[in-house]
């Protein structure tokens, strides 16, 4: 980890390190160090000089990784020269602890302070709680702080009182309207007739027809009206097939209609990428086979993805960088670049899991 770090990096393989269970952030750091100190380069003299300084300074991998993270803020043209200057200074000074090393590095490579951008982020649920973080104009945040601190009891912990005042203001304190409470709308999930085959309904492209094993056919509407539907219930009913999932409407328009969005949200209540916590209500309708590649706007080809994963999905099947969403037996599922299907168990209550146990 110190004197022989460059010998260790000589045999570095990123994928092998990931497969060995090494923390991905550390693997990325080591891959960057490999590119700087070991990988073939046209700047032979500069690389040899850097290697010599590393050996003289007996830096650890973590120290070298910290240097590279600090150099990210330096322009590409100046980075090599700055790296050599920093290594020479640190090799001569030999700071003891990692903290001393970091403090000296901070003086050697000052980074211009950049004002944070406005933004907001929301955490995943944890035991019924969530956290929101907001960055905005200091005057607006100061006004909010003043509002939530008014009237708190100084003899009691401030945190719970601030949270309670924030929620009260958010919901409306009587003088003005606040954020409305969500009103869940019930959706009855009904499995399609056993052994039925899903067919196109040529008379109505918005309908689905089942081919039954007795040789007859029946539309989804007829099936529900005969066996399940009752207007007095005041609920909506959705049919899911054990293999095809929810099926409706074939290629007619790019944007999913409201009926498709309801069924898609039932199929995956959260973005299907593993550990993503974004609920389907705030997600975008995604074409599993990209629209530009002829993908149809039907239920088998739709999934609800959060804004980020909808843009990082590998739409081109030959590009295997970030993984892609595929329809696995009726359920939108993330498939890794190496071909492994991994469900998102953050919210395991999608229609296919609820009805068919997967």
TrEMBL record:
<dbReference type="InterPro" id="IPR002711">
    <property type="entry name" value="HNH"/>
</dbReference>
<dbReference type="GO" id="GO:0004519">
    <property type="term" value="F:endonuclease activity"/>
</dbReference>
<feature type="domain" description="HNH nuclease">
    <location>
        <begin position="258"/>
        <end position="311"/>
    </location>
</feature>
<dbReference type="Pfam" id="PF01844">
    <property type="entry name" value="HNH"/>
</dbReference>
<dbReference type="InterPro" id="IPR003615">
    <property type="entry name" value="HNH_nuc"/>
</dbReference>
<dbReference type="GO" id="GO:0008270">
    <property type="term" value="F:zinc ion binding"/>
</dbReference>
<dbReference type="GO" id="GO:0003676">
    <property type="term" value="F:nucleic acid binding"/>
</dbReference>
<protein>
    <recommendedName>
        <fullName>HNH nuclease domain-containing protein</fullName>
    </recommendedName>
</protein>
């Amino acid at each position: 980890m110190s004197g022989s770090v460059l010998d260790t990096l000589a045999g570095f393989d990123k994928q092998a390190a990931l497969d060995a269970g090494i923390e991905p952030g550390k693997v990325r750091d080591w891959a960057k160090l490999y590119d700087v100190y070991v990988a073939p380069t046209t700047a032979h003299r500069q690389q040899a000089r850097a290697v010599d300084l590393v050996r003289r300074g007996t830096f650890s991998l973590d120290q070298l990784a910290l240097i590279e993270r600090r150099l990210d803020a330096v322009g590409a043209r100046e980075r090599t020269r700055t790296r050599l200057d920093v290594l020479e200074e640190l090799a001569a000074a030999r700071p003891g602890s990692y903290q001393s090393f970091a403090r000296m590095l901070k003086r050697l490579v000052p980074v211009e302070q950049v004002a944070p951008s406005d933004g907001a982020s929301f955490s995943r649920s944890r035991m019924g709680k969530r956290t929101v973080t907001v960055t905005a104009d200091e005057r607006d945040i100061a006004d909010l702080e003043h509002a939530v601190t008014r009237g708190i009891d100084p003899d009691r912990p401030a945190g719970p009182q601030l949270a309670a005042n924030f929620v009260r203001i958010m919901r409306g304190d009587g003088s003005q309207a606040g954020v409305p409470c969500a009103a869940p709308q019930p959706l009855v999930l009904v499995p399609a007739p056993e052994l039925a085959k899903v067919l196109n309904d040529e008379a109505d492209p918005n309908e689905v027809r089942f081919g039954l094993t007795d040789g007859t056919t029946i539309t989804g509407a007829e099936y529900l009206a005969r066996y399940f539907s009752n207007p007095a219930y005041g609920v909506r009913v959705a049919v899911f097939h054990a293999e095809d999932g929810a099926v409706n409407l074939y290629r007619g328009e790019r944007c999913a209609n409201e009926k498709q969005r309801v069924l898609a949200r039932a199929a995956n209540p959260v973005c299907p990428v593993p550990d993503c916590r974004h609920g389907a209500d705030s997600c975008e309708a995604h074409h599993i086979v990209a629209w530009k590649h002829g993908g149809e706007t039907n239920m088998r080809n739709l999934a609800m993805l959060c804004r980020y994963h909808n843009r990082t999905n590998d739409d081109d099947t030959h590009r295997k960088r970030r993984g892609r969403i595929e329809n696995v037996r009726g359920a939108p599922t993330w498939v890794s670049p190496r071909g492994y299907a991994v469900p998102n168990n953050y919210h395991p209550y999608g229609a296919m899991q609820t009805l068919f146990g997967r």
